[in-house]
TrEMBL record, chain A:
Residues 1-22, 161-270 are annotated as: Disordered. It comes from Modicisalibacter muralis. The keyword Hydrolase does not apply. Pfam families: HTH_25, RodZ_C. Keywords: Membrane, Transmembrane, Transmembrane helix. The chain crosses the membrane at residues 116-137. Residues 1-12 have a biased composition (Basic and acidic residues). Residues 280-351 form the Cytoskeleton protein RodZ-like C-terminal domain. This is Cytoskeleton protein RodZ. Residues 169-180, 227-270 have a biased composition (Low complexity). The keyword rRNA-binding does not apply.
TrEMBL record, chain B:
The gene is mreB. It holds the Pfam family MreB_Mbl. GO terms for molecular function: ATP binding. Forms polymers. Gene3D superfamilies: 3.30.420.40. This is Cell shape-determining protein MreB. Forms membrane-associated dynamic filaments that are essential for cell shape determination. Acts by regulating cell wall synthesis and cell elongation, and thus cell shape. A feedback loop between cell geometry and MreB localization may maintain elongated cell shape by targeting cell wall growth to regions of negative cell wall curvature.
Length: 355, 345
């Protein structure tokens, strides 16, 4: 109690404001009420009222109730309750309520800073990831922006690429055999259509002298082609590779047919050697094209105008990327190459040639 | 997933979804929104769109043309119109997040009347979720009010709170972070307004609107005789003549008009005291009960309750915002896992 009085006196000296108890007591005496009357009116014990007037709050441990009693008392004697509460706050501060309720207050400021840092770091990480993803797309696509965002198409092209690799691997061993016409059908074979192969074989056999031989060559070419199509390429490769002769090149077909095929390729031997290094492209529509050869040299790159024709030379095998594939006709080894087989959903063909 | 991401950019909110007013407390910023729970709906053909929410909509109440309908989506402390409540909440939640970069997805604590049913609680929870909240916690209104008033709820001592809101009055005895006894009656500020309207019609033969009744209550309403006599001039439509008439009301008449709803509140308080365990009753007799909510602003209501119960009666500081502030404090304690005041069902 004496401590409270000292504090109150010190406060009086500095601010010149009366303490809440003094204000209430003065007003009560002015109205001529005694303590008991006030206690009855407020339904408080007389000891509590005495304590309020003496600024001794031992009877009322909870700050919320102290303030409440002071305000109720102030209203009763008709003075401004805000003044009394202000005087109380000046003496005892306001923070006792907060301290009472939640200890979280103490740790809140650092946690808020932490939350901000967390938000910032998260944002940076997200931005970084987005940036990395974009970079990855760029590097994966080369400069081709057509394929951006078409994941499905991309996958399709890749699987086709692999298929093509398998096919041409099968064909490669056949080239080892005799480097002829016979190796050609597997490429357009992608169409899986006997009629298409017939046409191709027919085109190829325009040059042979006798029609009869061409007929034989046709069937000879188709048979191993079908065989390699039906069985996985891996199967076809070992079947053909051990044999260096044309006889063994088509083990599934009859011997006479294999012989006929050999005669047909002899007729075409000369032009095939020259064609192996060159590719001819005819652009009926504008197309972005990029071709690498075996030495990884870029032998053709850029946007080709509609109606142009390009013939390029390089070391096979070639790695090609042809945009707008439907508007491009391609000829390799004097054979038209069916680009549709390599084309993904975005109309971009990616494949290897001449392996 | 996206809600969680957006949550990083949203603040936690405590919402006092009241019948009369909706208050929002933002963690770390205090009370940022205090608007009437009113939504104005514009009907054009089959399209219903929100014309105004909050203060603007309240101004339209009772003054709307045919195609606009000003609705109070909350009634008696619970949701009366689910979709409109959801839109209102959405509007308010957006309003307290200034940033428009991301749609806010805050954690939300909503105060519910203590006697509300499971269905009513779920409706409130779902409408908060529909308004974009990523997590919804519910707290009983008297508990939030007690925390907001600064009562020692976590101590082994009884504290009694009487929260007179717009639609309901909640009476609760709280000890050790739990509600020992609670009672909710559907009498509140709205019932006071209705009582005034009925009184004016009976004694003056005139019809006054909701807004006028509320103004009368705020300016001259009182709950206990003996204060100074106050008067107010009001205008209403005379029922017999059909013409708007002006007349004067005084505070005694309003006291008379409010007798019925006040009697219900007193009866509920007495019944709570009767049913409280003796130890807690002794604590309450020692310290008294605390009045919160808009009803606590009715002149001399503390005197009336003190007279009727013989207990000390305290009006909480800033009684209108007590519940929202208490909810805010509870929100700050959510992260402490020991906090058992909240239910998420």
């Amino acid at each position: 109690m004496s401590e409270a009085q000292e504090r109150q006196e010190a406060h009086l000296d500095t601010a010149g404001l009366p303490s809440p108890g003094q204000m209430l007591k003065r007003e009560r005496e002015r109205l001529g009420m005694n303590l008991d009357e006030v206690a009855v009116q407020l339904n408080l014990r007389p000891a509590v009222v005495t304590g309020l007037e003496a600024d001794n709050y031992d009877q009322v441990p909870v700050a919320a109730y102290r303030r409440g009693y002071l305000r109720a008392y102030a209203r009763l004697v008709g003075i401004d309750e805000a003044k009394v509460v202000d005087a109380y706050n000046a003496q005892h501060g306001r923070n006792d309520i907060e301290r009472k309720i939640s200890p979280v207050h103490a740790t809140k400021p650092p946690s808020r800073v932490g939350a901000w840092i967390f938000k910032l770091v998260t944002l940076l990480v997200i931005l970084g990831l987005i940036g990395l993803t974009l970079l990855w797309w760029q590097s994966r696509q080369g400069n081709d922006l057509l394929g951006l965002g078409e994941l499905g198409g991309q996958d399709a092209v890749q699987s086709l690429d692999e298929q093509a690799n398998g096919e041409s691997a099968a064909g490669d061993t056949a080239i080892d055999g005799d480097a002829t016409n016979e190796t050609l059908p597997p490429l357009p074979e992608q169409g899986n259509d006997l009629g298409l192969v017939d046409e191709n074989a027919g085109d190829a056999s325009d040059q042979p002298t006798s029609d009869a031989v061409a007929e034989d060559a046709e069937t000879g070419a188709v048979e191993p082609g079908n065989a390699s199509d039906a069985t996985p390429p891996a199967d076809a490769a070992p079947a053909t590779s051990p044999s260096e002769t044309a006889d063994a090149a088509a083990p599934t077909s009859a011997d006479d047919m294999a012989g006929a095929a050999a005669t047909a390729t002899e007729a075409q031997d000369a032009p095939a050697v020259i064609d192996e290094r060159s590719i001819t492209l005819v652009f009926s529509e504008e197309s972005w094209t990029e071709i690498f050869d075996a030495t990884d040299e870029r032998i053709l790159v850029g946007l080709q105008p509609a109606g142009s024709q390009v013939t390029i030379e390089g070391e096979p095998p070639f790695r090609l990327t042809i945009g707008n594939a439907t508007g491009v006709e391609m000829t390799y080894l004097n054979q038209p190459v069916d680009l549709a087989a390599y084309t993904g959903g975005n109309n971009v063909a990616r494949f290897n040639l001449g392996e | 997933m996206f809600k969680r991401l957006r949550g990083l950019f949203s603040s936690d909110l405590s919402i006092d979804l009241g019948t009369a007013n909706t208050l929002i407390y933002v963690r770390g910023r205090g009370i940022v929104l205090d608007e009437p729970s009113v939504v104005a709906i514009r009907q054009s053909g089959n399209m219903r769109s929100v014309a105004a929410v909050g203060v603007d909509a309240k101004r339209m109440l009772g003054r709307t043309p045919g195609n606009i309908n000003a609705i109070r989506p909350m009634k008696d402390g619970v949701i009366a119109d689910f979709t409109v409540t959801e839109q209102m909440l959405q509007h308010f939640i957006r309003k307290v997040h200034q940033s428009t970069f991301l749609t806010p997805s805050p954690r939300v604590l909503v105060c519910v009347p203590c006697m509300s049913t499971q269905v009513e609680r779920r409706a409130i929870k779902e409408s908060a979720e529909g308004a974009g909240a990523r997590e919804v916690f519910l707290i009983e209104e008297p508990m939030a009010a007690a925390i907001g008033a600064g009562l020692p709820v976590e101590e082994a001592q009884g504290s009694m709170v009487v929260d007179v809101g717009g639609g309901t009055s909640e009476i609760a005895i709280i000890s050790l972070n739990g509600v020992v006894y609670s009672e909710s009656i559907r009498v509140g500020g709205d019932r006071f307004d209705e009582a005034i309207t009925a009184y004016v019609r009976r004694h003056y033969g005139s019809l006054i609107g909701e807004a006028t009744a509320e103004r009368i209550k705020e300016e001259i309403g009182c709950a206990y005789p003996g204060g100074e006599l106050r008067e107010i001039d009001v205008r209403g439509r005379n029922l017999a003549e059909g013409i708007p008439r002006s007349f004067t009301l005084n505070s005694h008449e309003i006291l008379d008009a409010l007798q019925d709803p006040l009697a219900s509140i007193i009866a509920a308080v007495k019944s709570a005291l009767e049913q409280s365990p003796p130890e807690l009753a002794s604590d309450i007799a020692e310290r008294g009960l605390v009045l919160t909510g808009g009803g606590a602003l009715l002149r001399d209501i503390d005197k009336l309750i003190a007279e009727e119960t013989g207990l000390p009666v305290i009006i909480a500081e800033d009684p209108l915002t007590c519940v929202a502030r208490g909810g805010g404090k509870a929100l700050e304690m959510i992260d402490q896992h020991t906090f058992e005041l909240l239910s998420s069902d």
